[in-house]
Amino acid sequence: MPTPLSTEDIDRIARKRAGAKLGWYLHALVFVLVNLGLYLASDMAWGTRAWSVKPLLGWGLGLFLHGVSVWLVGDTSGLRERMVQKERERLLRQNDKP
User: Fold this and answer.
1) Going by C-beta distance under 8 Å and a sequence separation of 6 or more, which residues neighbour residue 97?
2) How far, in Å, CA of 17 to CA of 21, rounded?
């Protein structure tokens, strides 16, 4: 049976999770600003924006994977916490059976 978390552990985990989420928000903001600048530069300076799509798609994939790691898969995910809780409950039910 897992031991309850101390107040310090809860604070450390909460700070780590908040930091990961803020890191993703900053990544998304920089992504939008830089790609907007690339779009404007390619459209205004050279009259074509075909080349500005490539960094957008590449970096967009990176941003997506970063988001998956922060929101769905990593230690910061509610999904992981729910899965751990379900496993705990299953093990407790098995342990209670005679």
Assistant:
1) none
2) 6
DSSP 46: S
Query: Where is mean pLDDT largest: 16-20, 45-49, 59-63?
Result: 59-63
- In the chain, what are the domain boundaries? 7-96
Token output for 44: 């205004």
Taking the alpha carbons at both ends of the chain, their separation in whole angstroms is: 18
Which pTM does this prediction carry? 0.68
Taking the CB of residue 73, how many other CB atoms lie within 10 A of it?
13
List pLDDT tens digits, range 60-96.
999 999 999 888 876 655 666 677 778 878 887 877 7
E strand intervals along the chain? none
What is the DSSP-derived secondary structure letter of residue 3? P
